[in-house]
Amino acid sequence: MVFGKITRRLELKGKLFFLCQCSGQQSAVPLAVVEEILLNLPAHQVVQVCRLVCHEWNELVDSAAHWRERCRREALQPNDASRPPEDWRQFYFLSKFRRNLLKNPRADDGLQGWEIVQNGADHWATELNRIPLPDNTVTKCFVTSNNQCFKEQLIDLKKEGYSDAFMDQLRPHIKISDWYTPLSDYGSQYQLSVDLLDQEKNPISTYHPYKIFFQSGSDYPWCQISYVFRNYGPGVRFIHFTHGGGWAGIRVTNSSVEICPAAER
Fold first, then answer.
1. Which of 38, 56, 197, 257 has the fewest beta carbons closer than 10 A?
2. What is the spatial distance between Cα 201 and Cα 210, in angstroms, rounded to a whole number?
3. Which has the higher per-residue pLDDT, 153 or 92?
């Protein structure tokens, strides 16, 4: 299987090299046609193989125009069109492969993926949403009992595909989001804590907002809290996400930690 993949890659590189040799002649395929061919190949193939074929192709692949056009064709555009990305290739890959790094964020698999830190009274549980979220695909939530209940996840960035060099050199924005609402009529509190940690799990940057208190009443809608880590220092290797609450209980769901383009606002 591995040999077959290597063979196909070498065949592709040979064909591309032949086409590039032809492009050096007066009757060659115009560079505009070459670029159209490159735009129809997978992006990782263009970077790993095509840009190595010759100088002209290297310039095409490294140009901002190439990645700006890829973004346009795949509808990957910055939220604020008046503030375009400084690096369109970085923006493309971060947008294309953006995902939630938290496991089981919507309680679809019970408590799987979460480490229980505190489990007061009747413990953590899951249930169907009684109050709909703006995103109606989120149908379940985590529920705390009275007294303190907290759970956490530790995200290993290298295991998720973000190398040390990538994090240190690019320092992409890290977007945090969580949804919460009180459980009962007797008042409750919600708390979120997120830390960017180095290799020894020492904090480099933290987000510890004030506790959010709900007075008595059960007519509260779902609330969202969000934050974006920017301009943090080098050395980030882990992300530590903790949330929960106390008193008469809190509901939480649709939590997320995403590596996102710097152009996002």
1. 56
2. 23
3. 153
Q: How far apart are CA 180 and CA 244, in angstroms?
A: 9
Place of tokens 């009180």: 182
Helix axis angle, 55-62 relative to 2-23, nearest 10°? Answer: 100
Tell me if 62 sits within 8 A of 51, measured CB to CB.
yes
- For 103, other C-beta atoms within 10 Å of its C-beta total 11
Question: What own/partner pairs with CB < 8 Å and gap ≥ 24 does 123-130 have?
Answer: 123/149, 124/149, 124/151, 127/251, 129/251, 129/253
* Tens-place pLDDT, residues 74-84: 888 776 677 77
pTM to 2 decimal places: 0.74
Is 172:217 a contact under the CB 8 Å cutoff? no
Question: Angle at the Cα of 256 (from 253 to 260), degrees rounded to 5?
Answer: 160
Torsion angle defined by CA atoms of residues 232, 233, 237 and 242, in that order, rounded to the nearest 10 degrees: -40
Length of the chain: 265
Query: 180 with 206: CB under 8 angstroms?
Result: no
pLDDT higher than 50, residue 178: yes
Q: How far apart are CA 177 and CA 195, in angstroms?
A: 13
Q: Determine the 3-state secondary structure of 193 from DSSP.
A: strand
* Residue 141 and residue 127 in contact, taking contact as beta carbons nearer than 8 Å: yes
75 CB neighbour count, 10 Å cutoff: 7
Alpha-carbon distance of 204 to 188, in angstroms, equals 31
8 A C-beta contact, residue 153 and residue 192:
no
Contact yes or no for 242/207 (Cβ under 8 A) = no
